[in-house]
Backbone:
């Protein structure tokens, strides 16, 4: 039975180093990567990979890190890729992260020192009940932690170090891919799959210990632009049709008890406005549209347009534009064609001794798009929780199990090959 040892706290040392590097992506930027600072972490990762003896590790012009752990077996093993993303969410500051390790957690409230109003309570974070005796890592209360997805980075790096240092464990060729801009939906826009040369992949970007996910939302984005009629407010009677007010009416007309994130769970989809801006003459809103079923996803888009038409009918001189574009699609339709990818992931988790939790993601990963691009890619747990906010946390012991899982995946593919 494989046993990974977190020697000298190397895993949490990697993780706490990575989270201190600000890598927040920017959805308003048109550059690739969206923020140049993401490359700062990429350079650190490349240097560490080279130190491990992985000679081809490099950072490309778009901020992607590529590396290869060479095969050490005579078997014909498919090339497996492990992938995580370097950026953190623009929803919460990632600058000046101060990671704190709360050792031997005993169920108490965790009051974060730089803002005492930020408190992690077991009643609000259900997975904390499984962490008694474990070491919990949080930020200090003014930033997110960055476990999404720097936990995955640290775990892949630890697994790479183990495999490079233990040639007695046989595996095929392993490719490593670290991506920028996943949090803003562009994580694989410039990924070179031909250069990557992988047959199958696993994103290490999941939540609860033992979870593996083969299904994501399908996702569209929508931009609604309202063209109103501007007039001097002192002489506006019968003339002005304010784009701001029209857009506000549309937002108010959206469903409140269904089809909204606050009222949905499990396999239910939603229609969600995420930004608004504008003036009397023109106003714009951005929406995200989500569902596990592509037909329902399209229906949600039609629901939005129906509401827009109903509202704007009361404004005879105003017009609108609604543009809906595809973001990513449910990866399950691809993964169902390659059942061994999930099967070997499940077996790898079982070998760590933790219960397997097969789940669907109410969101997406780089694996969603990689799968649809021809690289089947389920999502494996990284032990990250409450991401995109100041209460984000991770467990050292869960992260150790993620490292074991990655190593076991590599070994199982070799075992099952001829």
Residues:
């Amino acid at each position: 039975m494989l046993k990974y040892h977190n020697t000298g706290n190397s895993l949490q040392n990697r993780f706490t180093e990575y989270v201190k590097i600000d890598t927040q992506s920017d959805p308003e930027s048109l550059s690739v990567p969206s923020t140049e600072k993401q490359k700062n972490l990429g350079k650190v990762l490349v240097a560490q990979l080279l130190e491990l003896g992985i000679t081809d590790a490099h950072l490309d012009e778009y901020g992607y890190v590529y590396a290869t752990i060479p095969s050490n077996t005579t078997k014909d093993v498919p090339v497996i890729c492990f992938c995580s993303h370097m950026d953190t969410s623009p929803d919460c500051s990632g600058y000046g992260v101060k990671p704190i390790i709360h050792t031997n957690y005993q169920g108490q409230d965790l009051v974060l020192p730089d803002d005492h109003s930020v408190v992690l309570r077991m009643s609000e974070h259900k997975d904390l009940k499984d962490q008694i005796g474990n070491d919990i890592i949080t930020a200090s209360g003014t930033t997110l932690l960055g476990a999404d997805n720097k936990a995955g980075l640290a775990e892949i790096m630890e697994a790479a170090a183990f495999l490079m240092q233990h040639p007695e464990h046989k595996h095929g060729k392993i490719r490593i891919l670290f991506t920028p801009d996943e949090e803003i939906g562009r994580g694989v826009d410039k990924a070179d799959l031909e250069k990557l040369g992988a047959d199958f992949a696993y994103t290490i970007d999941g939540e609860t210990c033992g979870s593996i996910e083969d299904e994501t939302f399908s996702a569209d984005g929508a931009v609604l632009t309202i063209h109103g009629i501007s007039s001097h407010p002192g002489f506006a009677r019968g003339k002005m049709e304010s784009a701001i007010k029209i857009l506000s009416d549309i937002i108010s007309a959206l469903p409140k008890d269904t089809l909204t994130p606050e009222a949905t769970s499990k396999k239910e989809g939603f229609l969600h406005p995420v930004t608004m801006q504008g003036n009397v003459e023109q106003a714009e809103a951005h929406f995200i549209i989500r569902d596990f079923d592509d037909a329902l996803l399209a229906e949600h888009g039609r629901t939005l347009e129906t509401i827009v038409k109903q509202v704007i009918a009361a404004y005879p001189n105003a017009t609108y534009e609604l543009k809906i574009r595809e973001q990513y699609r449910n990866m399950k339709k691809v993964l169902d064609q390659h059942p061994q990818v999930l099967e070997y992931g499940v077996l790898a988790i079982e070998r760590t001794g933790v219960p397997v939790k097969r789940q669907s993601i109410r969101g997406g990963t780089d694996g969603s798009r990689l799968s649809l691009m021809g690289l089947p890619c389920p999502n494996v747990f990284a032990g990250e929780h409450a991401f995109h906010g100041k209460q984000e946390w991770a467990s050292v012991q869960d992260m150790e199990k993620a490292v074991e899982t990655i190593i076991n995946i590599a070994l199982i593919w070799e075992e099952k090959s001829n």
The two ends are 21 Å apart (CA to CA).
